[in-house]
Amino acid sequence: MTLERLAELLDAFAAQRALSMDLLRGLREGDLARRGRHSVAGDLTVADIVHHKAFHDLLHVRQICELIGARIEAKLGAMRMFV
């Protein structure tokens, strides 16, 4: 992947994230309690979905940290004994 392509993908992600945040900011307290039915998960509220999305983001943060950590760990040399 080129740096230009990466920049395009990050820009697209940022634009989509901004739209999602605008949607969340527009929710009222009562909106979070609205219920729906998911074909697999069953009954859900809007709050359930918001919490799921936040948790899902944390999973990606963990994945990024693991990838960065693996590259750094490979270069620890003698300091590996302190990990």
Topology:
Blueprint: H1 3-25, H2 29-32, E1 35-38, E2 42-45, H3 46-73
Antiparallel strand pairs: 1-2
Can you describe this structure?
This protein is mainly alpha-helical. 66% of the residues lie in helices and 10% in strands. The chain has three helices and two strands; from the N terminus they run ααββα. It has a two-stranded antiparallel ribbon. The longest helix is centred in the C-terminal third of the chain and has 28 residues, at 46-73. The model has no long low-confidence stretch (mean pLDDT 94).
Radius of gyration, whole Å = 19 Å
Number of helical elements = 3
Number of strands: 2
Oligomeric state of the chains present here? single chain
Assign the structural class, choosing from mainly alpha, mainly beta, alpha/beta, alpha+beta, or little secondary structure: mainly alpha
Strand order of the largest sheet: 1-2
Please estimate the helix content: 55-70%
Describe this protein with a few key phrases:
single chain; 83 residues; mainly alpha; two-stranded antiparallel ribbon; 3 helices
Briefly, what is this?
By secondary structure, the chain is mainly alpha-helical. It contains 3 helices and 2 strands.
